[in-house]
Amino acid sequence: MDDLRRFCQLLPKIELHAHLNGCIRTSTFRQLLSSTADQLRLDALDKEFQSGDTHARMANVFEKFALLRSCVTNLDEIRRITRETLEDFITDHIIYVELRTRPRSFDNGAIPMSSYVEAILETMKQYENQICSRLILSIDRTQTVDQAMETLKLAERYRPNVVGLDLSGDPNVKSFEHFLPVFNLAKQMNLSTTIHIGELPDAECLRENDLILDFKPSRLGHFNFRTNEQEQRVIKEQIPLEICPTSNLLTMKLANLTEHHFNLFHTRRHPLAICTDDSGLMDCCLSSEIYDLVQSFRITKEEICELMLQTCNLIFDKNQIDFCQTKLKEFLTNI
Ligand code: IMP
Ligand code: ZN
Fold this sequence. Notes:
By secondary structure, the protein is of the alpha/beta class. It has a single domain, classed as TIM Barrel (Alpha-Beta Barrel). The chain is 53% helix and 14% strand. It contains 15 helices and eight strands. Strands 1-2-3-4-5-6-7-8 form an eight-stranded parallel sheet, with helices on both faces. α3 packs antiparallel against α4 and α14 packs antiparallel against α15. The longest helix has 18 residues. The radius of gyration is 19 Å and the shape is globular. It starts with a helix and ends with a helix. 38% of the residues are buried. Inosinic acid binds next to β3. Keywords: Hydrolase, Metal-binding, Nucleotide metabolism, Zinc. One of its GO terms (biological process) is inosine biosynthetic process. Pfam families: A_deaminase. One of its GO terms (molecular function) is metal ion binding.
């Protein structure tokens, strides 16, 4: 292994954009798919993905998410996915993670959403000596306002381990406006927010970007497609960005990482977090994401350390900033 790759691996890291079920190991996903038809569908989706444009690729990814959702049917499976995700993150030297997930119930409501959240939080607790993990609850773009309100109530109930509220799901559904009252309420309750923004190259998406920027969330996810004005506004207002290179590369269909907007913001010293999005489904890990950026943009080790230190300021659990920065500084003095 070359020296730089090893450095990226050993560097204590902060992961701020990871969808719990998207982190599922491929082997676990395959095991949970009970029917041969579902296995074949997964193979077909993997093949079809290669030939599509951004819209088709996004549709493909969301069909995969639907398949995944249909094969996760109980709390033991959620505990297993949480456990394996945390173990993979610990192996990758992640010291602080904010996992995000859309709460769900099982058995037609007999197992309520609160049990889903508790199962994840209990599993996180078992690993607290090895990794500091917090939870963000996701509202899905296809949900109703009532359902979103229920998610907000759950977030409030499980504070301080739940640290924020996210908007994610199929970006073809432009529903941020619809959820604005819920996000405004979250803000009034001092709950941090992160919103997926600019995921598709279409006019409706660009219009929705403005509404999201008017709301001014605590952090933004992706921001792949945007107008010049929107870009300037984010820079001027210093709204932190969660950048997920592999995920963006695949869905934006970029030729290579040098076309990614990371450098545009990095060179302006914009607050950034490098993240994985869906490490299982996208087959990536945080060290390789950092390594690939370092290689593509010829970033020095010093710059990466500086970037990681400023990422610590973006975490939602402000009580952990000191812990994260101290760990990083310890690592730096020992290399
Ligand atoms: P979960 O919330 O733990 O079930 O994680 C999987 C879910 O995260 C998917 O069903 C999507 O709704 C959401 N998700 C994962 N990646 C993306 C993305 O790139 N854009 C929008 N939503 C995403
Ligand atoms: Zn995401």
